[in-house]
Amino acid sequence: MKNYTCLSTVVKLFSFLFAFLLSNSLMGQITLTNPNITPAYAVNDVLLGAGVTATNITYNGSPLDAQNPQASVIEFANTSPVFPLDSGVLLQTSGAPNIIDPDLSAITTNNVTNGTIIEFDFIPDGDSLSFNYIFSSVEYQGYTCSNYNDVFGFFISGPGISGPYTNNAKNIAVVPGTTNIPVGINSVNSGSPSFGGSAANCAAVDPNWTSNSVYFTQSYNTLFSNSSLPGFSSFNGSTVELTANTSVICGQTYHIKLAISNVMDTGFDSGVFLKAGSFASEPAFQLSASNLTSTFSDSVIVESCHTGTFCFDRTAAQNSNQAVVYFQTSGTATRGVDYNLTNTQNSGDSVVLGIGVNSVCLNVVPIDDGITEGPENVEIVAYSVNPCGDTTFSTGEIWIADSPVDLVPNAGNDTVICNGGQGTLNGASTISSNEILWTYSGPGNVTFTPDDQTLNADVAFDTPGQYIMYLTESNDSCNTQVMDSIIVDYEEVTLGVTNDTTICENGTATMVATGSGSSSFVYNWSHSSDLNGTQVITPTNQDTYSVFAESVLGCLTDTLDIEVDVLPEITLVTSDSSTICPGENIKITASASGGDGGPYNYVWTDDNGVTVGNGDLIDVSPSVTTTYTVEVTDGCESTPKSSTVEVVVAGLPDIVFDVVDGEICTPAEFVLFNQTADSLVNETYWNISNGMTFMDNDTIEVNIENQGTYDVQMVVVTPEGCVDSASVNEMLRVYPKPSADFTFFPMPATILNPNVTFQNESVNGYSYEWNFEEGDPIFATSVNPTSTFPNDKTGEYEVELITTSEHGCKDTSTNIVEVIPDVTIFAPNSFTPNGDELNPTWKPMIQGVDNMNVTIEIYNRWGEKVWESHDLNVGWDGTYGSGNIIVPAGVYVWKVKASNMINDDKYVWDGVLNVIK
Predict the structure, then answer these.
(1) CATH number for the domain including 756?
(2) Which residues span the domain enclosing 323?
(3) Is residue 190 a part of any domain in this protein?
(4) Which residues face 796 on adjacent strands?
(5) Are residues 168 and 92 in the same domain?
(6) Which stretch is the leader sequence (predicted)?
(7) Domain end among 769, 801, 820
(8) d(CA 706, CA 734)
(9) What is the pLDDT of residues 293-329, one digit of tens each?
(10) Does 81 sit behind a cis peptide bond, omega within 30 degrees of 0 on the bond before it?
(11) Which of 204, 389, 687, 897 is in Cβ range 3.0-4.6 Å of 855 for a Cys bridge?
């Protein structure tokens, strides 16, 4: 669909205008044109513009210093479009000497320190004075609304000037829209105090100080920091380009002081940039050339499209008199052939500005000759006499372009954009240099990347629906516009599906897919060519089914999966076949899994088909071996499953066991043996009634200490685990053993009386046997016998008693009969201790005494003990004393003390003996 709107004929603009625009780059810097220039050079060769002459130039009050280079006066050039001044003079505090100035001091409440002051006289050719400047400072942002701000001012004095400063001067460096508020850090800033600053300090300068933030910028800071100029790389903020202006009287002499200074310190510098050639006094009129309708270039008009103007303007202060302005035309365009001038006066070479008239304009009407000639220009030079009597000139220029061709933009083809709302436009313009613009109508917003003036812009839609995209091509030189449009349908289609599902074996599943975001859909399934959104399937195994939807406009949804899981078939696990013993019961089980997961239904039947139970566990007690069958089903279509469990009823053996001898005296040792068939017995256990047990022995030995009768039980375990037992009461009988014992007297017997009588003290004895070692008799069977032992010697003789009970149980007791000698002593009456071997010692012989308790003493005739001994085996050798001196021959008295070795009776014997030499 195409729409056409033609405001006038389109013109193709000539290439040099585009080249001019495209050459504007954002890159650039401020460079040092002439360092440390003289103040006189700064004024005359850089600052001054038209209509002004300067004299009496001084620097900090010195005419001589104005002729010498100064470090605080710098000429600069700028190539960056960010900074609005192309070139000019920088007056700065950096590198400036200390100064004293009453006008700067009047602006601040603190002391000024170092600074730059340039003063000069000038005579204006017009009735006004103006110049452009930018103030910058290191103190911005850090000292906003503080008491310590650098100051500057432009103080002008002369005819018609009245102000509070020296020579009735006034400061024309004031905030725009005010007459007396000086531009400074506290009057023009970001609108917020810095840390430590007080808003009251700024309000004291200008109550409306926050509104002045429109005149403040930090956009130059990067340019400053990258600049090669010294002194201001640390400037943190600036004013925008401002204009200082005032009314003057043509031809009169005025004085101006351009001053800037640090305050309180010399470390935080400031500067003021003065635009080159801007210090000028306006002439009596100004000539301007413009295109009445063009928005591309005011000095270009197009055949059949535009009407241009040359306007002659003056200020209201100059309109009290009539003025005549004369002009001449020239250029490559011919008047009357390529264009006509209207509103001319005086044969078409002058205009008259009557009393009270500020502006008169000539219309330049191009003639559409249908000839392609290329750009042609019209130049006009106007001149008049100003109030000072001088002739002033002004020039203007307008270009005439050929009539343009028809515009035929193409927005492309209607299209569909699917999910995500992202697409690319494919527009085409008639002339590549013409401006184009995309617009739209629709339910939401459209974002163009990089912008809406790009033919092949990427577009992003935020709301689904139908949009009309309009491509408008414009020829700026003629304001001609032609529009074309396309329809873009944006669909955000989505797909919903039923949840994953699980079905039973032999079951069916229903899958449903539902698209949204369009009027209708078809559904593409992975398992079928059927395009319906509902599918009924009967799978045998788990499977995944994919589906995507396609709208009527062709938009596809994401592909989604539906997983259909088929429950496994029923699996049945039953108890293993088991063996039980007669009379026992057993629990048999069935465990189902799979299918729908339960609960399951169990039915048990026996060999005869009789139902014996339900559930996964039943308790059975068959009398004979039986096979049980269980069938299980679930709650859905799963195939039933069955299984069997056999219960075997095992047999029991006949238990037979015996004992070798069932009646034994204490301590009894019985031997029992198993006679049960080995093949029927797996384990054997013996239990004796006294608590004794034995395991897995076919033959056992049972030792019993205590008399009495004892029962015996045998327990057998068959290979099938069946347990049976048999018992024999009083199978074992243990008789008591007699206790043999006896005493005898005398104890001991002596050689003089060797006859011994024995007293039988046995218990439970029935018969007795005595054995006497060397006795007479040597054997006896009587209860209390007597026996005589040898009387010719001493000795010890063993006597044995064997006692037998009525059940033949025996016990033996033995004892020792000791025959000892009677107590006797024999003591010699003399001996000869003369050194020969004949009878050299005296030693008594004693029998029947305790050898360990004997004392033998020898005394001389004076009663002195000469020898003593306690050993019957040691005799006296006739010596006495420690020197072993032989006693003199003579009679000596001996004395013996002893104890009976049996009854401890005491004996004392004494006598005399002769020592013979």
Answers:
(1) 2.60.40.10
(2) 286-401
(3) yes
(4) 818
(5) yes
(6) 1-28
(7) 820
(8) 7
(9) 443 445 777 877 778 888 877 766 567 777 788 888 8
(10) no
(11) 897
